[in-house]
Design brief:
Low-confidence stretches: none
Mean pLDDT: 81
Radius of gyration: 21 Å
Strand content: under 5%
Shape: globular
Helix content: over 70%
Number of helices: 16
Number of strands: 0
Largest sheet: none
CATH architecture of the largest domain: Up-down Bundle
Order of helices and strands: HHHHHHHHHHHHHHHH
Distance between the termini: 35 Å
CATH superfamily of the largest domain: MFS general substrate transporter like domains
Length: 413
Amino acid sequence: MEPPSDRNDAYASLRVKDFRSFVTAYFFLTFALQMQSVVVGWQVYQLTHDALSLGLIGFVEVAPFLTIVLFTGHVADVFSRKKIIVVSTLVYVLAGIALLLLSTVFGKVLLSHGPFAIYLVIFITGIARGFMSPAILALMPQLVPREMFGNASTWNSLTWQVGEVTGPAAGGLIYGFSGAGSAYATVVIVSIVAFIAYLMVSDKPLPKRNQELSIKESLSEGVKFVFNHEIILSAVTLDMFAVFFGGAVAVLPIFADRILQAGPEGLGILRAAPAVGAIVMSIIQAHRPFLDRAGRSLIISVFGFGVSIIVFALSRNMLLSLGALFANGLCDNVSVVLRTAIIQLHTPDELRGRVSAVNGIFTGASDGLGSFESGFAARLLGLIPSVVIGGGVTFATAATARSLSPKLWNLKM
């Protein structure tokens, strides 16, 4: 029997055993993957000293994700979601072991010809991400009573953000002081802890489907809804362009090495700074939400996102760079939270899954392809000009949204 619900209990969802195991696993997996991301980025940079090679890391992960995510959303509705998550986590564990082996003497022989072997491992994790993402989003609401869902979402988001902060910092520090082998070994151990925690979550029955549609018909309905809804389309497009052009995560190893001379330890701290900003803003929004001026706040946050990344690109001081990335995380959190709320409040219940899948395409494209864009632009235009121009495009995108979508600008919730 689940504990009684209390809307004023900030820890209500954490009192549910299954959800507690779920967020524990989510934290450890996020920690491991963010740690791995920093180590892979620095390792590829040391092998190539090439911005485009760094951008390819994001591309080879997001390519399989975008290819299969609509289909895997359907799979999550017809197959055990827990089993999908457990198998996907096991793939992450095996990928960590593969990266660990690549850091040995034998692996270094393979890497002497370039980072192709690393790209192959990351490609496989992209497939795992494609299956895992919709399964996690579908399983979480089944773990707590409906009246606790908002509380559960808050804890789930905060768990992810804490992993975003601690994972990169740990990755950079362990890599800097002990090398890639120790860092990847830590990734494997933490991933195994996540795997065990997911095993402890009870398997839940699949919801009954009122109508059987073909995959094509089902997905088509969700896509049509998004593209015919001005507010939702404006919100997801604005966020996509901001992250696609304004992101600089892929080239942070170059900034850490050439501009700030901070090494892998500094890279880990730089990677953590936006997540610290996001955590601070999530706490602020929990107490003083911006829903009464949602549209205006969303567009202004994208302005701030662009400005902060320009300041980071021009900075030569570690503290100023960290401050700019912290502000970047503040603005990004406002955008993410408000976009999510807009989608939830304007989407009918029967379309939530399919609309979430379409939203996943937008966010997946902006994250992974944005990394590729950052690397390609840095090689083509130069490191600092490419990031400054990207920030300017983000700024211009917000201005365009303000002009072309008055419904979004005036939106209140």
